[in-house]
Amino acid sequence: IENVFEGQPVTELDLINDLSQTYDFPTVAAYKAFTTSFPDGKQIRLLDRGADFIVITGTGSATGFDIIASDQVSQSIELPESDTIIGTQWGVIASSTPVSSDAAIQAAFDAAQNKQLILPVSPPCWTSTPIKLRTGTKILRGNIKANDLESFNMAGFEQPDDPESYGEIVVDKPPILYNPSPIQWWEMHNL
User: Fold this and answer.
1) What's the gap between Cα 103 and its chain centre?
2) In the predicted model, is pLDDT for residue 4 greater than 50?
3) Which segment of 15-24, 97-106, 133-142 scores lowest on mean pLDDT?
C-alpha cells in the first residue's frame, strides 16, 4: 500500500491516524495490550468478536462488553448503538463444549431491552447462572445451553399473540418459569 499523496509506503502510524481505515486486532486481549493511542473516532475491528468498535477517550465507563478499556493507554473502544444486539459482539462465546459466558449473555440481554437480540445457535452459548430476560426484547434466534442450571428468572417475560412473527430461543434444560401464564420452555418468545 502506498500513500497516494506522497508516493511513499503507508506506515503503521499513518494507518493508526487515518480515520478512514479500520485497524484490526485478532482478539480483545491484543487490543488491550496495544501501547499506541488511536485518535478518537477511529474504527477498531475485533476479529474474535466479529465487530467494529469506535475509539473514545478514557477508561472509566468500560464494561468489557460494549465498552472495552485499553490496559496501556487512557482510551476505550465502544460498540456503536444498534437496534439489534448480536451476542458474540458483546463477548458471548459460541462453543460445542460447556464454556460459560454468563456475564456477557446477561449484558447482551440487558442491552436488548426494547430491541432485537441474536445469540449463537450452532454451536450454542452456555450459561451456569440464571439469565434475566428484559421486557420488550425481541429474540430473533439463539440457543442457550444451561450448564448445571435448574431455573431461569423469567420476570417480565410475555408470550406474543403471534409467535410466528418472532424468533425463538431454545434452552436445553427445562427451567422453572416465573411467569403469570407459563409457557413451555421450547416455545419461549419475547416481545
Assistant:
1) 11
2) yes
3) 133-142
Query: Three cell numbers at 56?
Result: 473514545
- What is the Cα–Cα distance from 32 to 158, expressed in whole angstroms? 39
DSSP string, the chain: -EETTTTEEPPHHHHHH-TTS-EEESSHHHHHH--S---TT-EEEETTTTEEEEEEE-STT--SSSEEE-SSSSEEEEPPP-SEEEGGGGTPPP-SS--B-HHHHHHHHHHTTTSEEE---SS-EEESS--PPPTT-EEEEEEEEESS------TT----S-GGGS-EEEESS-PPP-SSS---GGG----
**Grid cell locating 44:** 477498531
Of the candidates 65, 148, 158, which has an alpha carbon nearest to the alpha carbon of residue 106? 65
Dihedral sign from CA coordinates of 67, 47, 92, 139? positive
Identify the CA nearest to 154 among candidates 126, 175, 125: 175
Alpha-carbon gap, residue 49 to 29, rounded angstroms: 11
Q: Which residue has the cell 462465546?
A: 93
Q: What span, in angstroms and rounded, lies between the C-alpha atoms of 151 and 94?
A: 21
Q: Which residue type occupies 37?
A: S
In this predicted structure, what is the pLDDT of residue 11? 84
pLDDT tens figures, 133-174 = 776 777 777 777 776 554 444 444 444 444 443 344 444 433
